[in-house]
Design a protein that fits this description.
Elements: H1 2-5, H2 13-33, H3 36-47, H4 57-70, H5 76-87, H6 95-112, H7 120-151, E1 169-172, E2 175-178
Antiparallel strand pairs: 1-2
C-alpha cells in the first residue's frame, strides 16, 4: 500500500477511489484475521482518501452491519472511524440493519451510564454513535418514502392529450368530445 501511495495514483480521483477500495477490502479482511488494531490502521488509511467524490459507503456499512453486530463493547476508536466514514457515505445497501445495529449500541451506551456523571470517553462514544445513526436513519427514511411513492403512485384525474394529435376523441364523464 505504501508503494502505491508514493506513485501518482493518489493525485487523481480515480486513483484515490481505487486506493480507498483497496484499503477498505484489506481492512475488512484484517478484521476477521489480524484483529482490531490492523483493522483500525487500514481503516484510518482508507479514510484519508474519502471525500465528496470518493465515497466511504463500504467502510461505513462494514462497521455498522458486521463489526457492531459482533463486537459487544466496541472500542471508541472504532466508533470514531464509523462516525468519520459516515460523513462521506453514499447510498447504503442495507440501511435498516445498519440503523438497528447502531441504535442497539446507542441504547447500550446510554443505559450503562448516569447522565449526570457523563465521562468524556462515554460522551465520545455516544457522539460517534449519534452521528452514524443520523446518517443511516436518514437513508432508511428516504428508502421508505421512495417505497411508499412507488407502492401507491398518485392518481391524476385530468385527461391529457398531446398537442400534435388533432381530431382525437376523448371521453370525459360519459361524453365524447373532439379535441
Amino acid at each position: 500500500m505504501q508503494i502505491l501511495e508514493s506513485t501518482s495514483l493518489p493525485k487523481s480521483v480515480t486513483g484515490q477511489t481505487q486506493l480507498a477500495e483497496l484499503a477498505v477490502s484489506a481492512s475488512s479482511s484484517a478484521f476477521y484475521g489480524n484483529g482490531i488494531e490492523t483493522f483500525l490502521d487500514r481503516g484510518r488509511r482508507a479514510s484519508t482518501y474519502f471525500s465528496t467524490q470518493v465515497k466511504s459507503t463500504k467502510l461505513f456499512e462494514f462497521i455498522a452491519i458486521n463489526v457492531l453486530m459482533l463486537d459487544e463493547a466496541p472500542d471508541s476508536r472504532l466508533l470514531r472511524l464509523l462516525a468519520e466514514s459516515s460523513v462521506y457515505a453514499g447510498q447504503l445497501e442495507d440501511a435498516e440493519t445498519a440503523v438497528y445495529n447502531i441504535h442497539m449500541k446507542l441504547v447500550e451506551a446510554l443505559s450503562i451510564v448516569d447522565l449526570d456523571d457523563l465521562e468524556i470517553e462515554v460522551a465520545i462514544r455516544v457522539e460517534c454513535l449519534l452521528m452514524a445513526f443520523h446518517v443511516a436513519a436518514a437513508q432508511k427514511q428516504e428508502e421508505e418514502l421512495i417505497k411508499d411513492l412507488f407502492h401507491s403512485p398518485p392518481i391524476f384525474k385530468a385527461k391529457v392529450t398531446p398537442s400534435w394529435i388533432r381530431g382525437r376523441k376523448v371521453e370525459t364523464k360519459g361524453n365524447l368530445n373532439s379535441v
